[in-house]
Amino acid sequence: MANQEWWQKYQGLILSAGIFYESENWMPITQKSDRAYGDLVTYRFHVSEPKALVFIFHGSFSAASYHTYLASRLYQDGFAVFAIDQLGHGKSSGPRGLILDLEATYTSHIEYIEKVRALYPENPPIFLAGESLGGTIALSIALKIPNLIKGLILYAPGISNGPKLSSCNIKIMRFLTWCKPSITIPKMSSDLFSRNPAHGSWWDDNPDCYSGAIEMRSILTMVDALNKLSRQLYGLTTPFIYFQGGKDQSCDPGHARDFVSSCAVENKEFVFYEEMYHAIGNEPEFPEIVDKTLRWMNDRI
């Protein structure tokens, strides 16, 4: 718990401030690919005889520490909880502000799930939870290993490219990165992601979160991943609960509603809050959302 001072002023303002996983870097995981290679930092709240195993995946340029409030609530209810910092995020290795290979991210996260599962011979059910890009990762993993996943908890997941990313704009971005691979774009103000007035400064002060300019290559990596996911998504079979805000500027609420109503999953639930922004984990409704999450999961164990 080094460098505690920075977060102390946010206690009572940010739900996760002052909450830490009991184990950090407890299981070695290395992401291996030609484009993105490095060691990942893992976290857990251990329960010897858990109701279920829950893996929480964080969003782009965020970190596992962003979701410790959710993790602690799950742990208090008898779930064993696990998290991992993506390459280039949080305490994991790799250059900040750069996402180059999400397929390798899926592979490393599946490795983590399978290694953890092997520690529990009674095979408790496995749930995946994710916010934003973390929701994209959870959905992609569920499509790859559907027989292992009992359910998904999705907090404003990325399931399609935003309206500003037209095919013309994407072509321009590809040309610009071909000319200059390291070209960057300004990051959206963190205040646009949450109504919590402390969220912006907390994100900027947080050493685990990235506040700098974003390389355009990272945006294109996510564009390609979302294009691939959108082609596969309607084949999803895993039960899920999907939380979405009506004032989300990153993920289209209309597309979210259309997906939930159209996908073939029989056991699904869509929970919509008209005034909620994108960073659900720091929105005023989140304690209520966690209550609903716990009820949904307990009903499926």
From TrEMBL:
Highest taxon listed in the record's lineage: Eukaryota
Annotated ranges, domain Serine aminopeptidase S33: 49-285
PANTHER family: PHOSPHOLIPASE-RELATED (PTHR11614)
The protein's name in its UniProt record: Serine aminopeptidase S33 domain-containing protein
Species assigned in the record: Blepharisma stoltei
